[in-house]
Amino acid sequence: AALARAALGRYTAALQARPLLVKTGTGMLTAAAGDLLAQRGERRQAGVDGRVDWRRFAAFTAFGAAWTGPVNHLWLPVVNR
């Protein structure tokens, strides 16, 4: 629990210091993890032991970095007014 609190504290401090950069990185990492999990689930559901589609992974990760983080950073404050 202490390790998680320390990590959350560092994340929060980084978010306050460099919000756009941290949100971009967060969007990228969550997209990457989400795509890997989705591909794993798709392979399991199909009953195959396939490889990771690295092109799809790269595309989804780039989307997370270029769209999710920056758009949420810029758009949500407008919506929340």
Outline the secondary-structure elements:
Blueprint: H1 2-17, H2 19-46, H3 54-79
Helix pairs in contact: 1-2, 2-3
What can you tell me about this protein's structure?
There is one protein chain. The protein has helices at residues 2-17, 19-46, 54-79. It has 3 helices and no strands. With 81 residues, it is an all-alpha fold. Helix 1 packs across helix 2 (19-46) and helix 2 (19-46) packs across helix 3.
- Average predicted confidence as pLDDT: 94
Fraction of residues in helix: over 70%
SS summary, helix count: 3
* N-C termini distance: 35 Å
Helix-strand string: HHH
Q: What is the radius of gyration computed over CA atoms, rounded to a whole number of angstroms?
A: 16 Å
User: How is the main sheet built?
Assistant: none
Q: Return residue spans where pLDDT drops below 50 for at least 5 consecutive residues.
A: none
Strand content of the residues, in percent?
Answer: under 5%
Shape: extended
**Estimated structural class:** mainly alpha
Q: Work out the number of β strands.
A: 0
Question: What's a concise summary of this model?
Answer:
The protein is mainly alpha-helical. The chain contains three helices and no strands. α1 (2-17) packs across α2 and α2 (19-46) crosses α3.
